[in-house]
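Q: Got one fold?
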Amino acid sequence: MIKLTSIVIAIVGIAMLYMGGKLLLLGGSPFYVVIAIGLLITAVALFKNKKIALSVYAILMWLVVGWTLYEVGFDKWQWIPRGDIIGLMGVWLALPWVVRPLSKAQGAARPARFHPFLGTTVIIIIALVIGLAFYDPYPQAGKLTNKRNPVDAAAVAGNDWAAYGGTNNGQRFSSLKQITKDNVSNLEVAWTYHTGDLRNENDATEYTFEATPLKVNNTVYFCTPHNEVHALNPETGELKWKYQPAKDRSYLQQHQTCRGVSYYAPESPVSSPDAPALCRKRIFNATTDAKLIALDADSGKPCADFGDKGIVDLRANMGNIRPHALMQTAAPLVAGNLVIV
């Protein structure tokens, strides 16, 4: 048992010395190297059946406590990465089946089952950790008033729902007043529309329809799990146009969904006779195979002046990109003349 314990501690010490050394070379804390040295000294002493190993480890535990208090104070959550492994191994070393064989190896007539220094250290630290569990490092005590601030009319959706959250403010609040809590129960289905985009045998197990439709430009826009974009007449539900992207099927092995598209319209209408009519208003679609696609909002045709014939590969210049490492499921954010993913 002692030999196996020493080997485990040595492995942890070597790993921490390697990773702590890399951190130190990058300008990080040197203390992980100190911990590693303490672990290796403990491991060697244990392997030789030296009882001093337990005292060395107790000193190491107090050094970790002091270092943690210096760096993060009593923030209990930040104690975990600094002391979880050290604490658990300390509890193990303080148990009788570790202490007794070491005491016996030193020739004690009555081998001890309790190491005073390490045992007391472990008890004190356990008590400290239990106390920290009841301490809130970020108290939020206070009272909230019921005061309501006036709603900024520009921040809420009106007749249109032009972004994922109504507007870019994301308040998901509409100023329309025809539907109220008193008449909402009287609503009836006006129309239904079936996309025809169904899960097939090559798709991921998690295949969900989660799109938040946009209603803007007198059209309802949304996307399907395969990143098809559908544009419907809001009054009749009739299809205006549909765009079906060519996708890399190898990416369809994780959560297959599309949560929405984004709409862009220039702040000032283009009046120049030389300006192209196509793509003055645009729909942006981010796909699960890491593409960003720009479509003309009126026709659904790709915008030739955007990326490569309407498509930007989001993996470009990223490096070390493996299949499934980058997937876009959220709607892009259109902010002024920028589209952000």
